[in-house]
Automatic annotation (TrEMBL):
It comes from Elysia marginata. The lineage of its organism: Eukaryota, Metazoa, Spiralia, Lophotrochozoa, Mollusca. GO terms for molecular function: high voltage-gated calcium channel activity. One of its GO terms (biological process) is calcium ion import across plasma membrane. This is Voltage-dependent T-type calcium channel subunit alpha. Keywords: Calcium, Calcium channel, Calcium transport, Ion channel, Ion transport, Membrane, Transmembrane, Transmembrane helix, Transport, Voltage-gated channel. One of its GO terms (cellular component) is voltage-gated calcium channel complex. InterPro entries: Ion_trans_dom, VDCC_alpha-1_subunit, Volt_channel_dom_sf. The chain crosses the membrane at residues 36-55. It is found in: Membrane. It is a multi-pass membrane protein.
Length: 76
């Protein structure tokens, strides 16, 4: 939950019109947080896939929320 809140805060702080070239400290810090958050969610997904299995009954992709989570991570 803390990483989700961190993601919401960093998305709220991002200014796409003024951050075309990421040279400010604020922009670089937000970019670092973005990489950390993506890695965190990707590792979480991989751990769940290893623990639960990927295909079949009662596996990671058998649950709709996990399929949505996987789509979001892959799209990111």
């Amino acid at each position: 939950m803390c990483v989700i809140i961190l993601n919401c805060v960093t998305l709220g702080m991002y200014q796409p019109c003024s951050d075309e070239v990421c040279t400010t400290v604020r922009c670089q810090l937000l970019e670092g947080f973005d990489h950390f958050i993506f890695a965190f969610f990707a590792i979480e997904m991989l751990i769940k896939m290893v623990a639960m299995g990927v295909w079949g009954k009662d596996t990671y992709l058998a649950e709709a929320w996990n399929r949505l989570d996987c789509f979001i991570v892959v799209a990111g």
